[in-house]
Design a protein that fits this description.
Mean pLDDT: 89
Order of helices and strands: EHEHEHEEHEEEHHEHH
Structural class: alpha/beta
CATH architecture: Alpha-Beta Complex
CATH topology: Spore Coat Polysaccharide Biosynthesis Protein SpsA, Chain A
Strand content: 15-25%
Number of helices: 8
Distance between the termini: 39 Å
Number of domains: 1
Helix content: 25-40%
Radius of gyration: 17 Å
Length: 248
């Protein structure tokens, strides 16, 4: 049976992480390894994590930021399929991983993504925005498209072959990784046309205009880092498209 590694990165996440941990712990799929990579939180994050610790592996130590922590998780992961679910995100129902596993088996793809809902930070039943990803095509990145990272599942063998997150990027290493995997290296990918994750508003790259500008500048850097040359208009339209669907 295919096995999963779910990586959760946290730092001072006491207000939200219980929802994340619960959503993984109630999954009906039997082969799930949950790795919590904590950046030495100073609030009650670890006390909450300890309630679930018999079901997961926990590392708590200083790190160099979000993507450095994700890379630590990748180094420890042993599952066939890796998913990343951060500490303000949660799966919408207990069948998510079963649905992902079935779709990957059916298609034989090496990666999968789905749809996501943004929800109010305090009232997670209030949907703020629906992110419908749509079926991937090679031209999509040129039009500012990207899949929602918390819905992105990849075979661990792909990470081993193509590498993890580039920590030179502080806001857009997730975008660079998906660009590298899907567009540059043509990793086979399938689309699960349903919402599988809810994300609270207020993430790092959405936090301020300064962060939004930096994130979109780094998106353009990601193309150059991969030796890719988008059409001229992409540099102007892509940031606007990206803000509309993700970095608002």
């Amino acid at each position: 049976m295919t096995t999963f590694s779910i990586i959760t990165v946290a730092y001072n996440s006491a207000a939200t992480i219980a929802d994340t941990l619960t959503s993984v712990s109630v999954q009906d799929y039997p082969q799930v390894e949950h790795l919590v990579i904590d950046g030495a939180s100073t609030d009650d994050t670890l006390a909450i994590v300890r309630r679930f610790s018999h079901r997961m592996q926990v590392v708590s130590e200083p790190d160099q930021g979000l993507y450095d922590a994700m890379n630590k998780g990748l180094q420890q992961a042993t599952g066939d399929i890796v998913g990343i679910l951060n500490s303000d995100d949660f799966y919408v129902h207990p069948n998510v991983l079963s649905r992902v596993a079935a779709m990957l088996e059916q298609t034989g793809a090496d990666a999968l993504y789905a749809d996501l809902e943004y929800v109010d930070h305090r009232d997670t039943e209030r949907i703020v925005r629906h992110w419908k990803s749509g079926v991937y095509g090679e031209s999509h990145f040129l039009r500012g498209w990207m899949p929602p990272h918390p819905t992105f599942f990849v075979r661990r063998s792909v990470y081993q072959r193509l590498g993890g997150f580039d920590t030179r990027l502080r806001c857009s290493a997730d975008y660079e990784l998906m660009l590298r995997f899907l567009l540059k290296n043509n990793t086979s990918v399938c689309y699960l046309p349903e919402v599988i994750v809810r994300m609270r508003t207020g993430g790092m790259s959405n936090a301020s205009l300064r962060h939004r500008l930096r994130a979109n500048r780094e998106d353009r850097d990601a193309w150059r880092m991969n030796g890719l040359t988008p059409r001229f208009y992409t540099f102007f339209l892509k940031p606007l498209s990206k803000i509309s669907q993700y970095r608002f």
